[in-house]
Amino acid sequence: MIVPILIIVVVGLLAGGIINVLADDLPHRRAIRLPHYPDGTPRPVSAWLGIMAFALGQRKSAGGATLSIRYPMTEIATVIGMIVTYLIKVDAPKTDTVQLVYWLIYIAIFVLITVIDVEHKLILFVVIIPSCILAIVDAITTSAPPSLERSLLGGALGFGTFFILYLGGIAYVYIANQVQGRNISEIAFGYGDVMMALLSGLILGLGDMLFAMFVTVILGAIGALLYLIRQRLAGRGSSMITALPYGPYIVGGTLLMILFGPQIRIFLVGYAN
């Protein structure tokens, strides 16, 4: 047990470092470069990992550009997510080494999607499309649920449901503009969220996607409530339209179903299958 966890720690740190590089360049549609500071200055090899940059006092470039806390936190979150996934799923029914590898890759993808969405309110096609292909390959090459048919049905359910919400968001923005007499162009529910729901459905399959959407709604409601409370405590007003990234809630619902699907099913409907 110790050896696999040590391997996962190393893999998770490296994956977290790669996620930081992708999160720096992909949202700006730049060519992927070696780790660099916010001003574009290359980081020394000893500072390629955010944890090492912080530990060795190499957070700043010669020009004074500073790495944010996001860099080590991304690496730590990736390691923790992979370890937790391994510990929970290693003895699960129909789990083999190949399936575990897929799940660990999903953790890295989820962290990347979350970081970019929180920082830029974007869910990028260049991340989602390859991830969807990976999920389909997973369904084809492993014996664990979902089957390819259930995977495709789950993807269709996620895409269709969230596309309707996307259209509803456009209608809501139009109505809010009329009520407030403003010209707000930001859509309340982005198309990136639709694509994230497609990925979630492909990963989970039809049955689990139904529960994941329910969990996502609960998580989103809790997140919105906490945001309103924070705004009120800070003495700030609230608008009919506030751009909050929804991708992390879809990620949360998906991850909870991957890790605790049977338990969530039992809690909600009284049976696991």
Compact overview of the structure:
With 273 residues, this protein is mostly helical. Helix content is 69%, strand content 0%. α1 (2-25) crosses α3 (70-89) and α3 (70-89) runs antiparallel to α4.
What does this structure look like?
By secondary structure, the protein is mostly helical. It has 2 domains: 1-91, no CATH class; 123-273, no CATH class. Helices cover 69% and strands 0% of the residues. The chain has helices spanning 2-25, 50-55, 70-89, 97-120, 125-141, 148-180, 191-204, 206-233, 247-269. Helix 4 (97-120) runs antiparallel to helix 5 (125-141), helix 6 (148-180) runs antiparallel to helix 7 (191-204) and helix 7 (191-204) crosses helix 9. The model has no long low-confidence stretch (mean pLDDT 91).
Unreliable spans: none
Separation of termini?
30 Å
Helix and strand composition category: mainly alpha
| String of helices and strands | HHHHHHHHH
The outline comes out as globular
**Beta strand %:** under 5%
Q: C-alpha Rg, in Å?
A: 20 Å
* Overall pLDDT level: 91
Tally of distinct domains = 2
Number of strands: 0
Instruction: Summarize the main sheet.
Output: none
Helix content estimate: 55-70%
What is the tally of helical segments?
9
